[in-house]
Amino acid sequence: MIIPKTREQIEIMRESALLVSKTLGIIAPEMVPGVTTLKIDKLAEEFIRDNGGIPGFKGLYGFPNTLCVSPNAQVVHGIPNDKPLENGDIISVDCGVLKNGYYGDHAYSFEIGEVTPEIKRLLKITKESLYIGMRAFKAGNRVEDVGNAIQTYCESNGYSVVRELVGHGLGTKMHEDPEMPNYGKRGRGKIFVEGMTVAIEPMINLGTKNIKHLKDGWTILTADGKPSAHFEHNVALINGKPEILSTFDYVYKALGIVSNEEDEFKNNLVLS
To answer: Rounded to whole angstroms, how far apart are CA atoms 202 and 179?
Structure first.
């Protein structure tokens, strides 16, 4: 069952989402060759707790850490460890926060040092597909309209879409209805309703769409060992249109990146 939120509830959710955004911004300059993901995880947990939040992933379903960190062929749910990142790696960092009873949850795929043009293009197309999917999150549309938009764009650029992992509704629980797949047929699935809040998160592979699991019970990898990219935003349906609750602007500020990609979705967002 989809749980619509009031404007007041959405503003509380925005605080949670923006704490995730700020956390990603804090770790962004640390994402360099030689850093360990355990160090990044510790930085993130300290920042979240210092700002009145609770790490949303830690302990959720038994997950042991604050961040899901997934380098290269890992798609999602990687566990932080003491292995240094290397030049040319890419790594998805997925972060969740619980604050004032509501969750924020979004992700960014970082470049470590200098990556190849092939990998840069994978990241570019995956991030662009996130916003293409967000545009389909509007009054009158259905769940698979978003998935179809993401799938069509990514597959037309030569990439594959993971089937087993999906976005989701978000609110007082980390995972609410509806599931938000990154593939599908137009006109299918639950219809979008005013006030609903979701996490849209394309997980796109350079090679096969197929995945496999590590024995740790969490880490998911591409079946062919080729890289995967992952970007995620939290979005609310307000006045029939998608309004972004999270932002990559803190990451971009830390990395010296100039972008206006989120502007069309920022009806009420003011950075602090």
So the answer is: 13
Q: Could you read off the pLDDT of 192-211 as tens digits, one per residue?
A: 999 999 999 999 999 999 99
Both tokens assigned to 2: 């989809």
In this prediction, residues 30-50 reach a mean pLDDT of: 98
- Count other C-beta atoms under 10 Å from residue 114's C-beta: 10
Contact between residue 203 and residue 125 where contact means Cβ atoms under 8 Å apart: no
- Cβ atoms of residues 178 and 199 within 8 Å: no
Beta bridge partners of 108: 93
Task: Classify residue 264 by its DSSP letter.
Answer: G
Q: How far is CA 57 from CA 9, 49, 97, 166, 272, in A?
A: 21, 13, 7, 16, 25
Fill in the amino acid letter for 23.
Answer: T
Coil/strand/helix, residue 115: coil
Determine the angle formed by the axes of helices 117-135 and 143-156, rounding to 10 degrees.
150
Question: Quick check: 68 and 97 in contact, CB under 8 A?
Answer: no
Q: How many CA atoms lie within 13 A of 266 on its CB side?
A: 12
* Of the candidates 179, 31, 176, the residue with the CA atom closest to the CA atom of residue 93: 31
230: pLDDT confidence band, cut at 50, 70 and 90?
A: very high
Give the DSSP per-residue string, 239-257. TTEEEESS-SHHHHHHHT-
Under DSSP, is residue 20 helix (H, G, I), strand (E, B) or coil? Answer: helix
Q: Is residue 11 helix, strand or coil?
A: helix
Please, what is the Cα angle at 125 between 130 and 33, to 5 degrees?
100
Q: What angle do CA 237, 238, 239 make, to 5 degrees?
A: 125
Closest CA to 224 of 69, 68, 75, 37: 75
The amino acid occupying position 112 is I
